[in-house]
Amino acid sequence: MHWTPEHAQPLNQWPEQHLDVSSTTPSPAHKLELPPGGRQRCHYAWAHDDISALTASNLLKRYAEKYSGVLDSPYERPTLGGYGDAAFLNGAKGDPEPWPGPETPYPLASLHEGLPGTKSGSGGGSGGLGGSPVLAGNLPEPLYAGNACGGPSAAPEYAAGYGGGYLAPGYCAQTGAALPPPPPAALLQPPPPPGYGPSGSLYNYPAGGYAAQPGYGALPPPPAPPPAPYLTSGLAAPTPLPTPAPPRPSPASYGFQGVAEAGVSLKRKATDEGAEGRYRKYAFEPAKAPAADGASYPAADNGECRGNGFRAKPPGAAEEASGKYAGGVPLKVLGSPIYGPQLEPFEKFPERAPAPAPRGGFAVPSGEPPKGVDQGALELATSKMVDCGPPVQWADVAGQGALKAALEEELVWPLLRPPAYPGSPRPPRTVLLFGPRGAGKALLGRCLATQLGATLLRLRGGTLVAPGAAEGARLLQAAFAAARCRPPAVLLISELDALLSARDDGTAAAGALQAPLLACLDGGCGAGADGVLVVGTTSRPAALDEATRRRFALRFYVTLPDGPARGQILQRALAQQGCALSERELAALVQGTQGFSGGELGQLCQQAAAGAGLPGLQRPISYKDVEAALAKVGPRASPKDLDSFVEWDKMYGFGH
Ligand SMILES: Nc1ncnc2c1ncn2[C@@H]1O[C@H](COP(=O)(O)OP(=O)(O)OP(=O)(O)O)[C@@H](O)[C@H]1O
Ligand SMILES: [Mg+2]
């Protein structure tokens, strides 16, 4: 029999049409056995016990010819998802269990294997990853086992059926004596075509997933086809190999599979520096503008004060940034380059570009001035509390990778995303950041405002307490009202503890502001106050009573910077002073500043500058100046303090 065009059926049709391998008519008994809808099985069963060895041998030949036709036809590699519909195993579609016939069904795998573009022991045209036992052997176990075939792995079946003899054991039991002697083992297990073999780059999937596929385009042109020893009649092998599947876009998420499979929380995977992929954006980037604590920022509310990156680019900002940091010490501990989009706002957006429309659950239609709020206090709050500082990106915060990831995942994304379904839980509107002084709590609050595209309003507990309880309460209410007027808004209340309990300085109003604060938190962040996020910060979390604590839906510990983060903060701070230390000096400095907060590191550099006579610009800061400053500036948080933060975090914090 020769191949004719009719043999060139698409792969997805041949099981229907060519699995009917019976050369005999089914007996009535067989017809009786027909299970409903089990046509495939029955065809197979007829062939099972009716055909002779000779017929089987002919069939083998015939199949080989048909395959040669199939191989000439255009080949399309189905996607993995296609397995669901085309799952065949031992001729039984969609049935993971072997056919329960009286004898073992013919394992057609012995015919199919080694043929590119066919699926072992199956039809359905699924010549995908699991189709070839050669490939299957290279697949990581979970991937292959997870396909829709659901049956026993093809590789063992192949070995048993194919390696054990030319025909399947089930068949040999009947008429084995009549069969010709099996060909040599080398012929029975032909070498796989190039690209399909264990070392082929095309399907040689690493255990870790799909990372870094070189792409099909990089493959060399397929060489001459291998001989076809599996064709007993000596038929010529199909000349061209099937055209390799078109380049498959390698999804970025593939690289992440390993992490997910490891069963580790993604946010914990956010290593601080040098993190690849998605967390790369958390890598520290020298600031484009001094990120001083907010008090120094102009308070004018000219409509450009959203910390969202849409402010006008200051003239020469880019040049200044590059020039300023060009002389910086190249530091090995520095993270990988910042994630692209995070860098863009300054450079890309035109002057006075409109602020992005509030999105998701953080959106409110309008900022109507709330009734009953003192108009004077509202104006005061608006003019004095709105922070017009530069935007702070995640990369502007050195270290704190896990915390940044947690804030983004548990706060920013839920606030920005629209609710998944009506009635889905409201995203949190309050977050407490606690930790040693200068650890970067306020910096993170500003960063949150930037990420949310929100107006930032800042107030300090100490400032509210100073003028007395009544005035403090009035300002507090005005601040919440001003935030509600300008949604989306982030209201950053530093030194929260000052409002709650008597302090060492014996301020009279301390404690008296607790009730107004709770009322504002309930009203300002309750059901009717969409579009406002309250960020409270404190270095004395133990001063918070339960009522206040409960008002903050999320509570995160802001730790002191670790070594690499200290190096980054120091390098930036020193670069701002025109100082470039050698790598060795910087490493020594990092070592010597253990326990310093970010704020204290900034003070250290200022002290060094003062020692060098700056800003009189007598000479650049040297390592000796910094060393001398170390004698004057030291860490304030004691190990005992740090322990108490850890304890409080364990009891009331959310961990990260
Ligand atoms: N991780 C950091 N990366 C870069 N700069 C930092 C970091 N942590 C702190 N700083 C800098 O240290 C200074 C103090 O930070 P910040 O005001 O955010 O600390 P804080 O935790 O709010 O302190 P406090 O408890 O006194 O209010 C700021 O200039 C800030 O830019
Ligand atoms: Mg602060």
TrEMBL record:
Gene3D superfamilies: 1.10.8.60, P-loop containing nucleotide triphosphate hydrolases. Residues 1-36, 91-134, 218-256 are annotated as: Disordered. Residues 219-229, 239-250 have a biased composition (Pro residues). Residues 120-131 have a biased composition (Gly residues). InterPro entries: AAA+_ATPase (IPR003593), ATPase_AAA_core (IPR003959), MT-severing_AAA_ATPase (IPR050304), P-loop_NTPase (IPR027417). Residues 10-27 have a biased composition (Polar residues). Residues 427-562 form the AAA+ ATPase domain. PANTHER family: AAA DOMAIN-CONTAINING, FIDGETIN-LIKE PROTEIN 2. This is AAA+ ATPase domain-containing protein. It comes from Rangifer tarandus platyrhynchus (Svalbard reindeer). The lineage of its organism: Eukaryota, Metazoa, Chordata, Craniata, Vertebrata.
